[in-house]
Amino acid sequence: MAFSVYDGEGKLAFRVDNYSRKTKFLIGELLLMDPIGKPLLSLRPQIMSMYDQWKGYRGSDGDNLKKKSKSQLFSMRRRSFVHNRDDLLEVFMSGDGGGGSGGHGADFTIEGCFKKRCCKIRAREGQVLASISPKKVSPSMVLDKDVFSLFMEEEVSPELIMAFIVIMDRIW
User: Fold this and answer.
1) Distance between CA 150 and CA 153 in Å, rounded?
2) What span, in angstroms and rounded, lies between the C-alpha atoms of 141 and 1?
């Protein structure tokens, strides 16, 4: 899988390089990198999870070995282990124990159908922070599902939103 993200000016903003199979049992870690290849976030599937759970860490394994600790940033999972077309995903930031054990619900929810490239990322309070939609070149012409538009609020961390999108691409 080669995943490239371009900003509104057509410049490379992020990339993910991984040429393994699409199944989560064979992919191992994915790295979200900046345009020059610096690892920003490591994304790891939790193999034995019924909820398609993933964890996000700052940097890469090499960075973490230097610090001698893993810096978990978030945990992301399906709300239900029953796979529906319009699954709801939940994200718990590591300050909440990484698994929502804080008793107050998800920090972010993702609703809609990523497979159709039509979903919204919401904050705990319900406001839409980012939305994904099919890329249109004209009102009647939609590009392939691998090309889509992402709109996000200014206060949102682009790295975090991109990590969510990379994981959704693997889940669906």
Assistant:
1) 10
2) 26
Q: Do residues 64 and 40 touch, judged by C-beta distance below 8 A?
A: no
Q: What gap in Å lies between CA 163 and CA 89, rounded to an integer?
A: 13
Q: Which residues contact 75 (CB under 8 A, 6 or more apart)?
A: 53, 54, 55, 56, 91, 92, 94, 98, 99, 100
Say how far apart CA 117 and CA 51 lie, in whole Å. Answer: 21
In angstroms, the CA 76 to CA 83 distance is: 15
Q: What's the pTM?
A: 0.81
Hey, what are 42's tokens?
A: 């490591």
Write the CATH number of the domain with boundaries 2-171: 2.40.160.200
Interatomic CA distance for residues 148 and 93, integer angstroms: 26
In this predicted model, what pLDDT tens digit does every residue of 79-129 receive, in sequence order?
765 555 556 899 999 864 444 445 578 999 999 988 888 999 999 999 999
Burial of 138 (0-12, 13-18, 19+ CB in 10 A): exposed
Sequence-separated (6 or more) residues with CB below 8 Å from residue 91: 74, 75, 76, 106, 107, 108, 109, 110, 164
